[in-house]
Amino acid sequence: MGDTDPAANKRSERQVVVLFAISVLGAVGALVAYFALPLGSDPMSVRWATLGLGLGLALSLLGIGTGAVHWAKTLMSDHEVTEKRKPISSDQATRDAAVQALVDGARDSAIARRGVLKGAVLSALAIFPLTIAVPLIGSVGGDWNISKFRHTVWRKGRRLAIDPSGRPIKASDVTVGSVFHVIPDGMRDEEHWMEEKAKAVVLLVRLDERDLKGDQSPSGETWSYDGIVAYSKICTHVGCPVALYEQQTHHLLCPCHQSTFDIADGAKVVFGPANRPLPQLPITVDAEGYLVAQDDFAEPIGPSFWERLK
Fold it and tell me: Which of 30, 79, 92, 258 is the 20 to 30 Å CA partner of 299?
């Protein structure tokens, strides 16, 4: 239509410009969200910051993608061109013909006369990388103290509470086959509690005691209670949340890269790229029947790192 109707051609050009302009606005919006909505300890700040960045990136990429497609469909040459198959190498005359075809295509699309369109394309392509580069540069001076992963807020006698309600859980509440997502009791009273929660999250499962093949304790202590076991939810591959439990096989699956752990056998790796078991939280019960930690995890949680003790 644009090949024969100048008005339609101009309308298509304006539409493409608008699409690339949307991309520019999305990229700018993502940068504004990065600086105006910083991550804090409040869950709502995390939610709004993530939403702002996500919407900005989505609009930026959507504008570039749809703009490129619309440009190709409405402004580029739509003449069918066929050629016979020939050897890969070509002579100079063929190469000259190919270059001439590109020149003819550019002339046919009138790209040289579309200054606004070229400006919109270049602006969108130039600004979008900033949405990735600025957050990366901003994180260069971040906290790289990896020793923080050696310890969590779990300590002897601290009750296990259901996430997110924070209600302490009794051993009698956990039936065979049931699964609970668990955090330390009183989590919100901790300083930087969101960061501490991210390290301390636990998956609690009750198995038939006959299915347990033993605990991870290197010195022989019992780290489970009446078939109830508790393991870190942080995958030892790259730190994704491990939370997909298969009751019949007692396997725990990480949805990111399919690392699979056998919680009936010390959460050992049975499949996938993870190279060590999930750390086990030693648990028992207090005088009131509530599940409590015997201590912190015996080893660092999360992915392996260069200073982690073996």
Answer: 258
DSSP state of 14: H
What dihedral angle (degrees, nearest 10) is formed by the CA atoms of 180, 185, 189, 192? -50
Phi-psi region of 149 (alpha: psi -120 to 50; beta: other; left: phi over 0): alpha
Crossing angle for the helix pair 6-36 and 130-138, nearest 10 degrees?
Answer: 10
Q: Say if CB 56 and CB 29 are below 8 A apart.
A: yes
Q: Which of 294, 278, 284 is nearest to 203 (CA)?
A: 278
Residue 85: Cβ within 10 Å count: 5
Q: Which residue has the higher pLDDT, 229 or 91?
A: 229
Structure tokens given for 92: 């100079």
Three-point CA angle 72, 76, 77, nearest 5°: 130
- Per-residue model confidence as pLDDT tens digits over 38-54: 776 667 888 888 899 99
Residue 301's contacts (CB-CB under 8 Å, 6 or more residues apart) are 149, 152, 199, 232, 234, 279
Cα–Cα distance for residue pair 153/164, rounded to 1 Å: 17
How far is it, in rounded angstroms, from Cα 286 to Cα 169?
11
For residue 294, give the DSSP letter: S
pTM: 0.61
Most confidently predicted of 60-69, 81-90, 94-103: 60-69
The C-alpha atoms of residue 202 and residue 215 are separated, in whole angstroms, by 16
